[in-house]
Amino acid sequence: MRIAAIVFALSLVACGPLDETASPNDTVTATAPIINGHTDTTDTNVASLLVGYPDGSGYLCSGSIIGPYTFLTAGHCTNKFNPLTDVGFIVLNNNSDRGLQDAFYPDGGFNSIDGGAVEVRFLIANPDFRQQTGNQDWNDIGLGFTSQPMPGPYLPLNRYPLDRLPLYGAPVTEVGFGETSPDGGGVGTRREVTKYDVKVRSAGELTSGAQAGLTCEGDSGGPALFKTPDGLMSVIGTTSRGDQQCAQSGIDTRVDAYLDFIRINMVDAGDPPSCGADGRCGFNCTAPDPDCPCAPDGFCTSACTTPEADPDCPQSCLYNGGSCAVQQGTTTGSTGSPSAADAGSKKGGGCSTASGSDLIWPLALVFGAVALSRSRRWTGGSRRR
Question: Alpha-carbon distance 266 to 165, whole Å?
Fold first, then answer.
């Protein structure tokens, strides 16, 4: 790792949403109240991404570990990374502070009990990623590849067509490392919120309202998790953006729309899932993958013991282009929003500054110990997270 043994207090900026009216050069201070979500100690395959630039600036994002060397996140978290000059780490801990301490203290590191961190080899954004105005899709998805293996189990990617599943009214759990208070406190701790109002927005995106809570600054790239028909808790989306105050709506990038992008880059990086029993679902297999025999793969065999969950089997409501979707909006509470057991909780997240005791990190990069701070930048459209 490109590090030195120096301890510094850091100010960190997380990748955040975009104001609909501000120009690209505007610097905006967030004042919206962020309600805490639940601290998440179980989703160990959701990690944080910390990037530092030679000038001392940097940012934090969230994401999913989908292979030993592969990290799934947002395109706006990866599109400016230069592996020749910048440095990045995937922090393998539900608390980024403790994880970095493990990585940089002499007795810590990747194999330490608290998880540590792994250095990023390179980051890549979808080549079609654009910060759009209006209702256009951003194609906001990216990948990171590490120099050392990350521990499993690895989060499965959704292969099912979401526009034909009963998504709205069903539980979707969003996970991230973002802010939890109006002053930017709490950034760097993994939190989750379960929502019941996520629905398909377009061919490439999902959207949700404020029911139960919203992702915000620092949660960019974090997963939206949904139990697919095969029974796997799968990544159906990655946090992209939302309204400036993180109080009305949020948008995620659909994973099922970008499987080719993910597959091609995992192959190029030497980290593709196999079609055998490796704990991951393979791509373009010539027989059912034993790790996901009920996935949409062109096969209906006895390997899938629940054929009603396999869209390749006539027993499935997805067979031959069928739909399992329920009428959106039918599962509601007394206020007209989908019912939820944890309504009122919210996790923080996006591009705001946290400092002081929230981020006392023993970070030393090849450029020396620096204060990681970066002004939030907005362009037209929504606010990045």
Answer: 27
28, amino acid identity: V
Check if the beta carbon of residue 218 is closer than 8 Å to that of residue 358. no
Q: Closest Cα partner for 115 from 131, 95, 135, 130? A: 95
The residue written with tokens 């043994």 in the block is 5
Amino acid identity, residue 343? A
Reading the block at residue 353, the tokens are: 């500054």
Q: Which tens digit of pLDDT belongs to each residue from 18-73?
A: 332 222 232 222 222 223 468 888 899 999 999 989 888 889 999 999 999 999 99
Q: How far apart are the first and last CA of the chain?
A: 28
User: Is residue 100 very low, low, confident or very high in pLDDT (cuts 50, 70, 90)?
Assistant: low
Per-residue burial over 174-200, b = 16 or more CB atoms within 10 Å of its CB, e = otherwise: bbbbbbbeebbbbbbbbbbbbbbbbbb
Number of continuous H segments (helices) and E segments (strands) in the chain? 2, 19
What the block records as the tokens of 266 is 């995992």
The residue with tokens 């109240």 is: 33
pTM, 2 dp: 0.78
Burial class from Cβ neighbours inside 10 Å (0-12, 13-18, 19+) for residue 111 reads: exposed
Burial of 288 (0-12, 13-18, 19+ CB in 10 A): buried
Could you tell me the two tokens for 248?
């009305």
CA 276, CA 216: separation in Å to the nearest integer? 38
